[in-house]
Write a structure and sequence with these properties.
The complex is a heterodimer of chains A (197) and B (275). By secondary structure, chain A is mainly alpha-helical. Chain A contains 8 helices and no strands. In chain A, α1 packs across α2 and α6 crosses α8. The radius of gyration of chain A is 18 Å and the shape is globular. Helices cover 39% and strands 10% of the residues of chain B. Chain B has a 4-stranded antiparallel β-sheet with strand order 1-2-3-4. Chain B has 2 domains: 46 residues, no CATH class; 174 residues, no CATH class. In chain B, α1 packs across α3. Chain B is α+β, with helices and mostly antiparallel strands. Chain B contains 8 helices and 4 strands. Classes of the chains: A mainly alpha (197), B alpha+beta (275). At the A-B interface, α2, α3, α4, α5 and α6 of A face α1, α3, α4 and α7 of B.
Chain lengths: 197, 275
C-alpha cells in the first residue's frame, strides 16, 4: 500500500490532469474548508454552498496555483472569499424565506449533542457572538483559530497590515470571550491547557 | 493600509499580549510579563476557550460534502475536455469574440450566434421570468460581487486581489480563448452554419456581438419540448428552445465563461458565441 501523497505531489498530479489526485486533494481539505465557511457564514447550508463554490474555484484556479504559498493557505483564502460572497447573497434574501437550517436534516447528526448541557450552551453562545462580530474581526479570528493560518498569512489573505491582523484578532477574541463571560461561563480548568510558546 | 496596532487602550494592549502569548508570537519578555499577571493569564485562558470553541465545528454533512466534491470533479472534467479543443483552435487576436471558424464566414457566424442568443433571451423574457437569482446559491462565484468585497467600514478590501484572482475575478486575467463546447470539428461546425440564412427567418440581425452585453440576464431555465439528453455542466443554463436550420436546438449559456451555444439533441454544437 502506497503512503498518501502530500499536498505538493497531489497538486502537481492534479495540475497534470490526474482526477484521482484532485479527488484526494479536495477530500483531504474539505473538512477544514467547510469549517472556515461554517464559522464565517454561521449557517450549515450557507457553509455547504460556500464550500462547494470554493472547491469549484479551486479547480478553476489550480492551473495558476504556483506553490508559492501552501496549498492549504491558498484554499482557505478561496474559502474565505466564497464565504463572503455567500454572506452577501444571504443578506439580500427576504427574511421570510425558510432556511434549510430551520428544517430537520436527517443526514446531519450533531456529534456533540450528547455533551453536557453547559458545553452545548457555551457553544451556542459562542456561535451567536461570532455571528454578531463584525466581519473585520470575525474573519481574522476564524482564519487564525479555525484555519490555523499564521498572522502573516492572514495579513496576506486580507491585504491588511500585520499589526492590524494582530489587533483585530485580539479584539475579536476579546469580544467573544466577553460574551462567554457574560453567559456565566468560567474558564474550565479541565479543558485543553493553554499551549505555552 | 493603516495599521491598527497602536492603541492608547491598556485593555487592548493586554489583549494583544494575551493573543500573542496564546499564538506563540510573544517575545520572552512579553511571556514573562503575561505569566506574572493573573489578569493577563485569565485573558489567555479565555482566549484559549474561545479558540477551542471555534475550532469545534460540527463535521460537514455527508450529502453536501459529496455534492461539493462531485461538482468540483465535474468542473475538472469539463475543463479537461475543453482544454485540447482550445489548444487546437486558437482565437484570432483581432476578433476575439467569436469562436474560431473560417474567417470569411466570420460575419455570418457572429450574426447567427448573436441572433440565437437574442432569441433565447427574448423567449425567456416572454415567459415573464426575470426575477432575482439570489436563491441560486449553487451557482459560481459572482465576479461582480467578489470584486466589490469591502469591509464593514468600506475602507479596505476584505480579500486581496490575489484572492480574487484565484476565483477568476481579476479583470483581464483570463484570455478569451475558450472555444466551442463539445469538441466539434471546424469543418462540421462551418458546414452546419453555412446554410443558416433561411428566408423569413425571425432571427434578428445584430451587427456587433457587444450588443448582447446590454441584454438583461435570463433567470429561469427553459425546459426543451423535444428529447434533449445532452448532459449540461452545473454552470450551463438553458436560455431557449429554437429551430435551427430545421433542427430542434437549445440555446445554452455557460454562466461562468459567458459562452452561448446552440446544441441539438445529440449535443452537437450548431453555433457558439464568445461573450
Amino acid at each position: 500500500m502506497q503512503p498518501p501523497l502530500d499536498d505538493r505531489a497531489l497538486v502537481a498530479a492534479a495540475q497534470a490532469g490526474d482526477r484521482a489526485a484532485l479527488d484526494q486533494l479536495i477530500r483531504t481539505h474539505y473538512d477544514r474548508i467547510y469549517a472556515v465557511c461554517r464559522r464565517i457564514t454561521g449557517h450549515d447550508s450557507d457553509a455547504a454552498d460556500a464550500a462547494q463554490e470554493a472547491l469549484i474555484a479551486v479547480v478553476r484556479g489550480l492551473p495558476r496555483f504556483d506553490g508559492r504559498s501552501a496549498f492549504s493557505t491558498w484554499v482557505y483564502r478561496i474559502a474565505t472569499n466564497a464565504s463572503l460572497d455567500e454572506l452577501r447573497r444571504r443578506r439580500r434574501r427576504p427574511m421570510s424565506v425558510v432556511r434549510d437550517d430551520d428544517r430537520p436534516d436527517h443526514e446531519h447528526v450533531d456529534p456533540v449533542a450528547h455533551r453536557p448541557f453547559e458545553q452545548i450552551a457555551e457553544r451556542e453562545v459562542l456561535e451567536a457572538a461570532l455571528r454578531d462580530l463584525p466581519d473585520d474581526f470575525r474573519i481574522p479570528v476564524v482564519l487564525r483559530d479555525v484555519a490555523d493560518l499564521d498572522y502573516q498569512e492572514i495579513a496576506d489573505t486580507l491585504d491588511v497590515p500585520l499589526g492590524t491582523v494582530k489587533s483585530r484578532i485580539a479584539r475579536g477574541r476579546g469580544m467573544l470571550g466577553a460574551a462567554l463571560e457574560r453567559h456565566g461561563n468560567q474558564p474550565p480548568d479541565s479543558r485543553r491547557p493553554t499551549e505555552a510558546p | 493600509m493603516s495599521d491598527e496596532t497602536l492603541s492608547p487602550d491598556p485593555e487592548h494592549d493586554g489583549a494583544l499580549l494575551a493573543a500573542a502569548y496564546l499564538d506563540g508570537h510573544a517575545t520572552p519578555e512579553e511571556r514573562a510579563r503575561v505569566e506574572a499577571s493573573p489578569q493577563l493569564m485569565a485573558m489567555v485562558t479565555t482566549f484559549a476557550q474561545v479558540r477551542d470553541g471555534l475550532a469545534d465545528v460540527p463535521p460537514a454533512p455527508v450529502g453536501p460534502r459529496e455534492r461539493g466534491v462531485a461538482a468540483a470533479l465535474a468542473e475538472f472534467d469539463r475543463l479537461q475536455a475543453a482544454a485540447p479543443v482550445a489548444a487546437a483552435a486558437p482565437v484570432a487576436p483581432t476578433a476575439p469574440n467569436v469562436v474560431p471558424m473560417r474567417s470569411r464566414r466570420w460575419g455570418k457566424v457572429l450574426t447567427v450566434a448573436a441572433g440565437l442568443a437574442l432569441v433565447g433571451v427574448v423567449g425567456v423574457a416572454a415567459l415573464g421570468s426575470m426575477g432575482g437569482s439570489d436563491q441560486d446559491s449553487s451557482s459560481a462565484v459572482d465576479p461582480a460581487e467578489a470584486r466589490t468585497a469591502v469591509d464593514a467600514n468600506g475602507d479596505a478590501p476584505l480579500v486581496s486581489q490575489e484572492a480574487l484572482d484565484t476565483v477568476g475575478v481579476a479583470g483581464g486575467s483570463e484570455g478569451g480563448t475558450e472555444t466551442t463546447a463539445g469538441g466539434q470539428s471546424e469543418s462540421s461546425t462551418v458546414a452546419t452554419i453555412g446554410s443558416i440564412d433561411e428566408p423569413g427567418s425571425p432571427v434578428p440581425q445584430l451587427e456587433q456581438s457587444s450588443d448582447l452585453r446590454t441584454l438583461p440576464e435570463p433567470k429561469v431555465a427553459v425546459a426543451p419540448s423535444f428529447s434533449f439528453e445532452c448532459p449540461l455542466a452545473d454552470t450551463q443554463e438553458i436560455l431557449a428552445e429554437v429551430t435551427y436550420q430545421g433542427t430542434p436546438a437549445v440555446v445554452v449559456r455557460d454562466t461562468v465563461t459567458g459562452v452561448i451555444s446552440a446544441l441539438d439533441s445529440q449535443c452537437t454544437v450548431l453555433a457558439s458565441l464568445q461573450p
